[in-house]
Each structure stands twice: as structure tokens, then as C-alpha cells.
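User: Okay, second chain of the day. Same drill as before: sequence in, C-alpha cells out.
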Amino acid sequence: EGALLSASWFKKDIKDPIEYVQRLAGFTFTTPVNYPEGELKGIELEARQQLGSWFEDAEGLSIGANATFIDSEVKLPKRDKNDFKDPNIAQPISSRDMTNAPEHLYNFNLIYDLEQYGTQVALFYTIKGDTLVAGAGESNGNFVPDLYEKEFSQVNLTVTQELSEASTLQFKAKNLLDPDVETVYRPRQGKEVTNTSYKRGREFSLGLTVRF
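Assistant: Same drill. C-alpha cells below.
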């Protein structure tokens, strides 16, 4: 009681997936394009435990963690494959990772639930693995490599207080660590090159929910 252990495998075949690629029109830009087909599969592991089941003084306190490992692939359309086969580019690519599908996701949480007071405090720590932002492209006969967002971590805090049976007050603090977020051009061969490096900033919000 109060514990959960799970392991799951998932697989999704996608027809005409919407992918983000780099194009040229006097300047390089990113645009969505329907690709022929894609596949997404992976493994998810999860564990949760209410500590009150072990220690009476820890009643209402629970910990949890989950890990997701993702393997994704999309088939390139004929136009891109032909562009990359051009002798000036010589990059015979027929498939690549799916955009916005990180290599892995790790989540850890600590939740303190005081039912008698209608109060809940939750702390979440997330690690997001390398993620493709935009696929490779061609610019004036030059190869523009895949653009990846590198792994980074994030800490979020949520405090919820029931004011009555019909109203709830909630405070959220997002991205407390405010890490550097870096995107890089990552060629199939050779060293990666930094494209951007920035901070997203911390975000705080206070909300009142009333149910009728």
C-alpha cells in the first residue's frame, strides 16, 4: 500500500509527421513540413512511495521518480534526400531523429500533502536530454547541420491551498535554477558548433480557481 512500481514499452507509427526543418529564402529560417513517415518508441520506468507507510512522522509525504528513454526516427522526403545527395553537399541522409523528441527524460518529485488543512506542496526536478529543434537543410549549396537543444535541468515548485469546497489558491514557481539553454549545430561528422546560449528566466504565478 502506498507504493507503485511500473515499467512500460511504447511504440507509435506516425503518418505524415509535422517536422521542423531549415530553409533558405535570402536568409535561413525554420518551417514545418509534413514528412512521409515516422516512428517513436521507448521505455518508461516509474516508482512512487508514500513515506507515511514506513514512518508515522512522514505521513502525507511521498517521493517519486520516472525515467523515459526515447528512440525516434523520421524518413526524409524525396526533395531533402536529393538535395543532400548533391555532389557539392555529399550528405546522403535518408532519415534522422524526430524533432521535439528528447533522447531521455528524468523526473523526480517530492510531495507533501496535508489533507486536514487542504494544503499541498510539490517540488519537481526534471532533466531533459538532447532534443532536435530543426532538421538539417541546404543553403546556397552548403549543408546546414541538424540543430539540437542540449540537455538541461529544471526545478519547479507548486503550493496549493484549498480555501473552501469550491475555491483553491495556487502558487507556482517555474525554472528556479534558471540554467543556460544552449542550441548547437550538430553535423554527422566533426565538432558541434554553438548556435545560441541564453537563460529562459524564472516564472512566478498566483492563481485562484472557483468552481460553480
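The longest strand covers residues 61-75.

User: Thanks, on to the next one.
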